[in-house]
Amino acid sequence: MTCNRVVNSTLAEAIQIWGGSLFDSDSTQQSELRGGTSPWLAKSPRHRHPSIQESCRCDVLVVGAGITGSLVTEHLTSLGYQVITLDRERPGFGSTAASTSMLQWEIDCSLGELTGFYGFERAANIYHRSLQAVAGLGSLISDLRLDCAYRNRNSLYLAAGDIGGLELRQEHALRERAQLPGIYLDHPSLLREFGFTREGAIFSPGSADADPLQLSRALLASAVERGATVYDAQALGYDVAGSSVGVTLESGHVIEARHVVLATGYVMPNFVKSDIYKTASSWAIATPPQNEGQLWRDGALIWEASTDYLYARTTSDLRIVIGGEDDDTIVEPEDRDRLMPAKAERILAKLKQLWPIANAQAEFIWSGAFGQTEDGLPLIGPVPGHPRILAAYGYGGNGITFSYLASRLVGGMIGGQSEPWFEEFAIDRPAPAI
Ligand SMILES: Cc1cc2nc3c(=O)[nH]c(=O)nc-3n(C[C@H](O)[C@H](O)[C@H](O)COP(=O)(O)OP(=O)(O)OC[C@H]3O[C@@H](n4cnc5c(N)ncnc54)[C@H](O)[C@@H]3O)c2cc1C
Rounded CA gap, 26 and 52, in Å? Predict the structure, then answer.
């Protein structure tokens, strides 16, 4: 089995090689990270925070206020830290606004693939952490009563391309051995229960969906109620020579923080290096609201076991959101956005094949840069050579699940915890042996 989203081209064909963000950390704007309009972006208020008036100190400075920065800020305030969070543009209007926000515990790399990389025990542990992360995120949303169209969902991992029933059965057997939830549906059962005409699927409980922008804003609002301060400001320089980190802002002010958390999404400062990271592009559409009977059973999250990737969900206002067509040879924002009409046509054609009774029109079309790692796992933890700076980069199709995981790991690390499994997400981990 292969990591679903890793490439749309062979490594030799790909323009990029693994090795870091393509986006300049000082100049990249949110509009370069995404094009078009997602349903969440269309209805979100355009709020900015006040600018900073003087230099100051805090326990933790969080740079970036998308879903990752919001989760980190919320968690750190709940632990009692005095937190300042910065965003140089509108919080949530970066990659978070482009997310299809399928909150899944199943990772872009199948358990089989991850076992090939790291052995069964470690791979199974990582899957369990991901399962716990989605459950933790659901509990947090429920405890804080966050208004974000959150819904518990089942998922269907459909046979597609080279991954047929046999390969899915093997993956399911491995998941059973790891005591992960889910059942294998063969073709007749899948057709009977869900109406999809594929060779088979793995049906799993424990995932969710939400409006990512509302979720991000609501988390930040909770943190602000607890005392966090959010500024409209750009971090430019990081001085780690002293016993705290001095972060110089574009305004010239300096924030002295005991710890800094980088939550800058797919735009990483150039001192953050990872050999296993690269940028691709993804495209998505949302249909107009469908009639009740036009949606598949339970609005399960759909994703394909294929590198020619397709993923789909429904929304609480009965739209189908469907995306994919990932391409790692197209990374320039202009090229990516020019392709939106053609990619939308292809995605709609796939929707007609997958679910012929849908009203297959695109009311919203959008695109986004998409950061991914060779093993489908996030980059979380200390930035080598930069004491007290921690990275929180929740890459891959599980970006938001991993953002939650990052918030907990970072909280633990700042509190002095050290667990061997933290290393599994280290930003300087080597490429997995293939
Ligand atoms: C098309 C598409 C579909 C996706 N679907 C899913 C999905 O179904 N499920 C899922 O879990 N994930 C999905 N993802 C991934 C997910 O959207 C991302 O992992 C997530 O949104 C990243 O959030 P972030 O907060 O890390 O980054 P961002 O939302 O980009 O936030 C980073 C913020 O940092 C700010 N910033 C950057 N540099 C500085 C600086 N120097 N100073 C101050 N501020 C700065 C930016 O302005 C920005 O607001 C998808 C992504 C795309 C593009």
Answer: 18
Q: What is the pLDDT of residues 194-210, one digit of tens each?
A: 999 999 999 999 999 99
The C-alpha atoms of residue 197 and residue 217 are separated, in whole angstroms, by 39
Tokens 């959101």 locate to 321
Question: Would you say 379 and 277 are in contact if contact means Cβ atoms under 8 Å apart?
Answer: yes
Is the pLDDT score of 8 beyond 60? no
* CB of 234 closer than 6 angstroms to any ligand 1 atom: yes
Contact 261, 63 (CB under 8 A): yes
Residue to probe by mutation, ligand 1, list 245, 304, 400, 427, most atoms within 8 Å of CB = 400
DSSP letter (8 states) at residue 298: G
Specify whether the CB–CB gap between 248 and 234 falls below 8 A.
no
Tens of pLDDT, residue by residue over 236-267, are 999 999 999 999 999 999 999 999 999 999 99
Give nearest CA residue, ligand 1 atom 26.
265
pLDDT value for 395: 84
Contacts of 105 (CB under 8 A, 6+ apart): 127, 130, 131, 133, 134, 204, 206, 207, 398, 401
pTM for the full predicted model:
0.96
Query: What number of CA atoms fall less than 13 Å from residue 25's CA on the CB side?
Result: 20
> What's the CA gap between 314 and 292, in Å, rounded?
11
Q: Ligand 1: which residue has its CA nearest to atom 7?
A: 101
